[in-house]
Amino acid sequence: MDSTSSPDRVILLHGLARTPRSMAKLAQALVRDGYAVENWDYPSRHHDYAGLLALLRPRIAALAGAQRTHFARTHFVGHSLGGLLLRSLLSEPLPFPAGRLVLLGVPNRGALSVARLQARRGFSRLPEMFGRPARELYRDAPWLADLPWPKLETGAIAGTRRFHPLIPSAWINLLHRATEQGDGTVELDSALPPALTHTLMLPVGHSFLPDDPHVIAAVQRFLKEGRF
What we know:
Layout: E1 9-13, H1 24-32, E2 36-40, H2 49-70, E3 74-79, H3 81-90, E4 98-104, H4 112-119, H5 126-130, H6 142-145, E5 153-159, H7 168-175, H8 188-191, E6 198-202, H9 213-225
Parallel strand pairs: 1-2, 1-3, 3-4, 4-5, 5-6
């Protein structure tokens, strides 16, 4: 990044039932690269998808204020649900120059683990456990097929570690003897849809994508060069 020009800004958006702490290592790495980083928090568990969009739209609109004088472009990185929200928000008219978008373990087609969780005895209270949007993220939900793609240069990173003991949905998939490739929560063909040409697979579990050093290096490279 040219130190004599205005810096680029990067907005980070965490996943369902997570906090900005889950994106902290990525934020630190991008700050070292010279970006102005905003690691946003939002109440992911307490609203449905439409409600979360309504909360975040004013924050996207407010980015225009400082953009004109302080920043060249604004890039975006979203993990899981955060990536879906960014897809929706960035498909709307943007009052500032947008850069690139990186999706980390995003359930673009939903996740089979959601239906499996709902089917297991003792897990019927899924929204109360993982948050209200969880019920909407079942595999091939019609609303996901209708979700638009932003006109930003977009890259997606998918994890391929199918089981990690700290990922609850990975246990559910194990109990169901699931054979799909994925990161323990999101299947590979959901995280890497055919609409994208810039994709990368790494041996990481879903929850750990944002702070994995190889994932962080790939995000840095994509934001800078448009490739993984």
